C-alpha cells in the first residue's frame, strides 16, 4: 500500500521554472538535467513497485532529521519483519568502481558513490528507530534503474541492485510473505509525521526578479509563443491549449515558489504574466481562487 506519493521536489520545480525564464550556466544546466533524470528514474521504479502484492507499506521521498543530520530516503518499504531503504539512481552509460570510487568509463569523471550516501542514511535511520523504540532490521539497497547502465568491477558484497537484477529484487520482495499489524502502520505514520519539508540540500542558482523573463508559456513545450484565443492560452509552436484560468494559476504557483517573500497582488501577477490580458481578468481569477487579505488598495491574496 502506498502511503506517501512522490512529487517533483520544490528544487526540481524551481529549476524547471528558472530554465524557462533565464539562461542557466553549464553547471546549473547539468544540475537541472540530473534532477530531471533522477526524478524520472524514481517514477520508473514506482511503476515497477506497483507490482508488489504482499502486504507492504511504501513511503516515498522521506526527508528525516536525526541529531541535526538530514538524510533522504527515495523509497522506504515496510514489510512484516524488515524495512528496506532504497536509493534509486538513474545513471546511464558505463561506470566502474575503483577503491570505492565511482567513475564514468569514457570521461573518467568521478561521481558520488551512492553506496556511501545510502550507508550514512541507514546508520541515521537505525538511530531514529532506536529513539522510537522500534526494533526492525533495516536493509539498504542502491537500485540502478536505467537499463542502459553498466557497472564494472561491482563488488558482490555491496548493497547494489543492477538494472538486470531489479525485477528479481522485486520478485523476491513479493515472494517473502508479509502480514502487517497496527505496530507497522503506527511506525509508518510516525515516520511520515517526521518528514521535513524544508530541504537543506536544495541548491538553486542565484536569481533576481528583474532578470527573469516575464510572460506566460505553453505548459507542454514551454514555448513563450502563446496567444489568447477564446479563454484559452494557445501555443503557436505545438498547438497545445490550456484554459486561461488554469494557466494564470500555474503562473501564480511559479511566482509563489520562486518569490515566497513577494505578495500575490493583481499588479504583481499582471506584471509577472506580462500578457494580453486585462488586470480585471487577473483580479477575477485571484479573487475566485485565493483569500483576499487587506483593504482595496493593498489587497493581496493567500
Ligand atoms: Zn507548446
TrEMBL record:
Residues 37-151 form the NERD domain. It comes from the Bacteria. It holds the Pfam family NERD. This is Nuclease. It comes from Sporosarcina globispora.
Amino acid at each position: 500500500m502506498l502511503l506517501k506519493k512522490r512529487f517533483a521536489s520544490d528544487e526540481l520545480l524551481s529549476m524547471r521554472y528558472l530554465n524557462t525564464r533565464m539562461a542557466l550556466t553549464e553547471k546549473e544546466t547539468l544540475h537541472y538535467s540530473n534532477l530531471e533524470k533522477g526524478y524520472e528514474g524514481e517514477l520508473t521504479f514506482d511503476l515497477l513497485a506497483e507490482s508488489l502484492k504482499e502486504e507492504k507499506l511504501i513511503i516515498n521521498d522521506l526527508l528525516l532529521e536525526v541529531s541535526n543530520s538530514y538524510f533522504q530516503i527515495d523509497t522506504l518499504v515496510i514489510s512484516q519483519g524488515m524495512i528496506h531503504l532504497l536509493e534509486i539512481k538513474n545513471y546511464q552509460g558505463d561506470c566502474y568502481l575503483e577503491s570505492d570510487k565511482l567513475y564514468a568509463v569514457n570521461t573518467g569523471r568521478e561521481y558520488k558513490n551512492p553506496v556511501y550516501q545510502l550507508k550514512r542514511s541507514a546508520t541515521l535511520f537505525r538511530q531514529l528507530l532506536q529513539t522510537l523504540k522500534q526494533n526492525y532490521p533495516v536493509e539498504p539497497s542502491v537500485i540502478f534503474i536505467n537499463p542502459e547502465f553498466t557497472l564494472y568491477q561491482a563488488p558482490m558484497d555491496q548493497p547494489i541492485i543492477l538494472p538486470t537484477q531489479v525485477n528479481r529484487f522485486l520478485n523476491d520482495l513479493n515472494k517473502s510473505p508479509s502480514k502487517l499489524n497496527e505496530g507497522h502502520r503506527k511506525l509508518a505514520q510516525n515516520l511520515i509525521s517526521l518528514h521535513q519539508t524544508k530541504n537543506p540540500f536544495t541548491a538553486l542558482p542565484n536569481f533576481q526578479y528583474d532578470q527573469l523573463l516575464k510572460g506566460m508559456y505553453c505548459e507542454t513545450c514551454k514555448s513563450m509563443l502563446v496567444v489568447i484565443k477564446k479563454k484559452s492560452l494557445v501555443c503557436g509552436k505545438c498547438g497545445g491549449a490550456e484554459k486561461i484560468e488554469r494557466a494564470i494559476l500555474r503562473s501564480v504557483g511559479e511566482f509563489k515558489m520562486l518569490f515566497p517573500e513577494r505578495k500575490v497582488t493583481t499588479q504583481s501577477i499582471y506584471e509577472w504574466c506580462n500578457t494580453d490580458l486585462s488586470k480585471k481578468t487577473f483580479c477575477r481569477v485571484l479573487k475566485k481562487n485565493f483569500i483576499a487579505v487587506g483593504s482595496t488598495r493593498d489587497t493581496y491574496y493567500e
